Amino acid sequence: MGAYILRRLLLVIPTLIGIMVINFTLTQFVPGGPIEQVIARVQGEGDSLQGISGGGDAGADQGADLDQRYIGARGLPPEFLDQLEIEMGFARIVCGPDHVGEPNLDDPSCVKEDIPILKRFVNLMGNYLAFDFGESYFRSISVVDLVLEKMPVSITLGLWSTLLAYLISIPLGIRKAVRDGSSFDTWTSGAIIVAYAIPGFLFAILLLVLFAGGSYFQWFPLRGLTSDNWDELSAIGKIADYFWHIALPVTATTISSFATLTLLTKNSFLDEIKKQYVITARAKGLSEGRVLYGHVFRNAMLIVIAGFPGVFFSVFFGASIIIETIFSLDGLGRLGFEAAVDRDYPVVFGTLYVFGLMGLLVGILSDLMYVFVDPRIDFESRRT
Nearest CA to 315 among 150, 198, 197, 200? Predict the structure, then answer.
């Protein structure tokens, strides 16, 4: 098993590079870019440069200065645009051999030189392999700090939604398989189909209208993970407040994955129950519980466990974009979407790199879970 894990870990780097190559290439064909975003903001908002890379007060002074000098028909000076390209990594300053001191465009011996796309990608991956993701173009904060700031929301949605889905789906799926064709199986299947058919964002809005101060009840808060008086609460009070806030968003993100997992568990159990070893176990006089949980469960759960990475990441990132927006939660899904709209490339590629790496590692973890559930599986004997 150790050799298999080592091979999988060694494949992580080339796979991750391939993901980054595809997405980096695609961004080169997307209309507009961070420079164009800055120009549009400056021409439309006087203080929009306040968040551009650089220090806080310095950025504000620069934005105020631009507000007074450059907005209007005169446009932005070429020197400022050149400096923007250098700060964002699209160009560099090259000076002659006689230059002394720091490179500076004010020196006649120094010129701006565009960095080729291939060179920019190599620099990007070199920094990312060392987990240096740079700084956001528009937020004046490092990408790592930004991701860590948004991580609690996404972890909350992903972890609790996935855990809740599995805790409900597995027992319900087993029950449906055992009572296949009964009235219980029929009405639960109808409820599951309805739950699967309802889009997550519509269900989230329905929860808000019904239970968060809409037209009916105001049992749950509208936004955030904690209350304003969080620091004043006791330990038990903090735990209760936390679960009070996440009840609606977690329910909204669980609904579709719960439906899929339940049917998957049921069908998997039905396939195993019909096999010869189950008939033999029953013929030996084993109890139904021993047959189901001592023999069938191990084999039936393999396909359910295989779907764990997809379930987790669909909740952790993809589905959380809409849920975070509806419930005013500031998580990684919303961060990635806003960064893509703003062409904030360090944040876009940084979050992509982090999620890609996490996805590959969770894939390895799912293989280890295979072995834990059924020790008969031997990955060493197969080629990666």
Answer: 200
Helix locations, 274-378, DSSP H: 276-283, 288-291, 297-306, 308-313, 320-326, 332-342, 345-373
Rounded-to-integer distance, Cα 308 and Cα 162, Å? 8
Residue 15, both tokens: 């796979």
Q: What average pLDDT values come out for the chain (384 residues) when binned by 10 residues?
A: 76 86 82 75 52 40 41 57 76 74 71 81 85 82 86 80 84 86 88 81 83 76 77 84 85 78 85 83 80 78 69 63 80 81 85 81 74 65 53
With contact defined as beta carbons under 8 Å apart, do 278 and 272 qualify?
yes
Q: What is the Cα–Cα distance from 318 to 347, expressed in whole angstroms?
A: 16
First-residue to last-residue Cα distance in the chain: 12
pLDDT value at residue 26:
83
CB atoms within 10 A of CB 362: 15
Task: Name the 3-class secondary structure at 12.
Answer: helix
pTM above 0.85, yes or no: no
Contact 261, 301 (CB under 8 A): no
Q: Of 187, 326, 190, which Cα lies nearest the Cα of 251?
A: 326
Name the residue type at position 77.
P
The H or E element spanning position 110 is strand 110-114
